[in-house]
Amino acid sequence: MAEPLKNVYTPKFVALICSSWKSILPNLDEEAFAYRVFEAGWKELELKGRMSRLADVMESILPNDFTKAANLIKELISKLSEDGFSLGGFEYMFIPEYIEKNGLADFEISLNALKHITKQTSCEFAIRPFILSDVKLSMEFMLECSINEHANIRRFASEGCRSRLPWAISLPDFKNDASLILPILENLK
């Protein structure tokens, strides 16, 4: 039987994340971070629940100023890449979840952060609340992403606005009218 995906979040994984965070946030208490990740209820959490826990614990170490926090996250993504992490996997999707949970009031900063983050890990779930909040602004951004030179940003443009993306928040307006998605798909053909 295959190992459940949720088991990717091991103490070793969290320690490696902490070591990268520590270089950006020197006052980080790595033991307290790990404790908060693995505290009560961890074993019962499924994959998405574990991602959310990591995003919430990450929120607890970041400044309340969203602009500063988003910039630190962009630094973390760069640092993880420098440290040799293979970031293409799903296990880092807790990072854009922080933007999803905290950035709706700061659209421009959030969208730019997602564009940076998606170079290394998928942000297709994280963009959806932004689309639901302001479809015009979000889809203009996604159209711009569809012609970006970076393949992962182009992928983000198509996957992020799929009306029925598995495990993701539905985009009901797109189920009835796909006209907003068609220019993106035309760019990607």
Number of strands: 0
Task: Characterize the overall form.
Answer: globular
The helix fraction, in percent, is 55-70%
**Overall residue-averaged pLDDT value:** 92
**N-to-C SSE series?**
HHHHHHHHHHH
Number of helices: 11
Poorly predicted parts: none
Task: Please indicate the percent range of residues in DSSP E strands (runs of 2 or more).
Answer: under 5%
Spatial separation of the terminal alpha carbons: 39 Å
> What Rg is obtained from the alpha carbons, in whole angstroms?
17 Å
Structural class: mainly alpha
Largest sheet, described in full?
Answer: none
Q: What key phrases describe this protein's structure?
A:
189 residues; mainly alpha; globular
Descriptive report:
- This protein has 189 residues and is mostly helical.
- 60% of the residues lie in helices and 0% in strands.
- The chain is built from 11 helices and no strands.
- α3 packs across α5 (94-102) and α8 packs antiparallel against α9 (151-159).
- 31% of the residues are buried.
- The mean pLDDT is 92.
